[in-house]
Design a protein that fits this description.
Layout (H helix, E strand, L loop, with lengths): L4 H28 L4 H27 L5 H9 L5 H25 L1 H4 L14 H21 L5 H13 L10 H7 L10 H26 L1
Length: 219
């Protein structure tokens, strides 16, 4: 399958803004407004839901609006993207996400004081299971909505992700490129690299489980 520059650019920009909206509200509400973590997480959930809806509407017809390596992975399984395109999608998603971290820090440089740093924010224990559940429902929803030809994918996925941020112990990263990007922020949105790698493993597990269930339901 041919890879167009517009597809790669859409995945890059979409991934960048997805990370920015995952990090910036946590900095704004925690560091600038000095709000409690509970308010910051709520603001984060609302912001992600709104912006993800817009990003899918903007780029869905261009690249499919994956912005997520495990989404690209299952679309490869479904033969909706070829291997070469899948690899390039994942690379630009990760690059866009890391740049999103830098831009979030740039906007709040007075509060953060650095453009990039390695997170020391621990997320361990039973929190890991939240990534399996969050990624599972996200991927199953995407697969079923695409299969059913839904015209409301953008709003459904936006609301699902926003809701799951407030309903999972991990606050639902459910996205390897977002997880990698959040390894490089000292804000409360961050995750230390070791925990991040476990998150990514759990996300892959959740995505594979979702694909298995989807195939059972489809057959």
């Amino acid at each position: 399958m041919k890879i167009s520059k517009s597809e790669l650019l859409a995945e890059f920009i979409g991934s960048m803004f997805l990370v920015m909206v995952a990090i910036s509200p946590m900095i704004l509400f925690s560091s600038v407004f000095e709000a409690p973590d509970s308010i910051a997480v709520f603001a984060n959930a609302v912001a992600v839901a709104f912006v993800l809806f817009a990003l899918i509407e903007m780029f869905g017809s261009v690249s499919g609006a994956h912005f997520n390596p495990v989404v690209t992975m299952v679309m490869f399984f479904e033969k909706k993207v070829g291997l070469k395109k899948a690899v390039f999608f994942v690379l630009v998603q990760i690059a866009g996400g890391i740049l999103g971290t830098v831009f979030s820090h740039l906007m709040f440089f007075e509060n953060i004081g650095e453009l990039i740093s390695v997170s020391q924010n621990s997320r361990s224990g039973y929190v890991f299971f939240g990534e399996i559940f969050g990624t599972f429902i996200l991927l199953l929803a995407i697969l079923m909505l695409v299969k059913n030809g839904s015209e409301k994918i953008s709003i459904a996925i936006g609301l699902l992700v926003g809701g799951q941020i407030m309903a999972t112990s991990s606050t639902m990263f459910a996205n390897p490129q977002v997880t990698i990007a959040r390894m490089f922020t000292a804000s409360s949105a961050g995750i230390r690299p070791l925990d991040g790698l476990i998150f990514i493993f759990m996300q892959i597990v959740g995505a594979l489980l979702a694909y298995v269930i989807y195939r059972l339901m489809r057959d």
